[in-house]
What we know:
Blueprint: H1 5-25, H2 31-41, H3 45-70, H4 79-95, H5 103-111, H6 117-151, H7 159-185, H8 188-195, H9 202-229, H10 231-258, H11 266-290, H12 300-311, H13 316-341
Helix pairs in contact: 1-13, 3-4, 3-6, 3-10, 4-5, 4-13, 5-6, 6-7, 6-9, 6-10, 6-11, 7-9, 8-9, 10-11, 10-13, 11-12, 12-13
Amino acid sequence: xxxxxxxxxxxxxxxxxxxxxxxxxxxxxxxxxxxxxxxxxxxxxxxxxxxxxxxxxxxxxxxxxxxxxxxxxxxxxxxxxxxxxxxxxxxxxxxxxxxxxxxxxxxxxxxxxxxxxxxxxxxxxxxxxxxxxxxxxxxxxxxxxxxxxxxxxxxxxxxxxxxxxxxxxxxxxxxxxxxxxxxxxxxxxxxxxxxxxxxxxxxxxxxxxxxxxxxxxxxxxxxxxxxxxxxxxxxxxxxxxxxxxxxxxxxxxxxxxxxxxxxxxxxxxxxxxxxxxxxxxxxxxxxxxxxxxxxxxxxxxxxxxxxxxxxxxxxxxxxxxxxxxxxxxxxxxxxxxxxxxxxxxx
Length: 346
């Protein structure tokens, strides 16, 4: 059977639908408890869900910078087209194991309708790298935010905290080194060679490299070119991706305020609560990404929220509430992404 783009689109759509069903059936609470949590959130659900309109817009702007730096001036893709693919791509990433097995191939397939396949592939890979790269910068800077708040007596600091933060710094520094190598020389050929060393995949890796050697080399060249020749686009994209993490912390801030957690209220109290929200997001996403092979990171994200919130001296019940509302938000945006898959903007 020949896999046409329409059939592949339907396959991705089916993946998403199955994932949503699995998600609904594997909640750690009963539907009665879930409904109670939703009622507790009330009108706060509107800003909690709505803030992602802006987060995805920032992500789309970051990807647009990558595409502009990786294509010729006569190739133009509208922002709304990129925005749509951003939402649908992340919806599929949430829905599939090892986030990216669904979203990135889908983005490549769709973007190849606008530009040649090699540039579409390199643009998607570059943006995926940028998204991950910005994560490491977010985690890295969050360590120093924690240290600053601990220094003024706002947060606890123990030997266990020191070891944990030290390990995060080392982890991020290693990642920065690896990313610098990937950005300077490309990484697609190296990744295929590495996959070829896995038992049972050696023959596939060699055949794939022999068949697509020229195309893969061009993709690596385009990846390296963005960092070396289009530094403006590179750093704008990185800054936007980093900014999207800061904006995402508003989601947690809204839920903390809903529970009456405002560090004494007033402008200073709200600002301090927002800084706590950044730390909760940073350490939750770090924990979730370290064990990111589960579909929708089932159970991992919930545990991450409970641990990170408890580490700041807040109740485990608040952590459970935040994780459940975030999971509901994910389901809603997965459904929006699936719906956008069926809207033809060509």
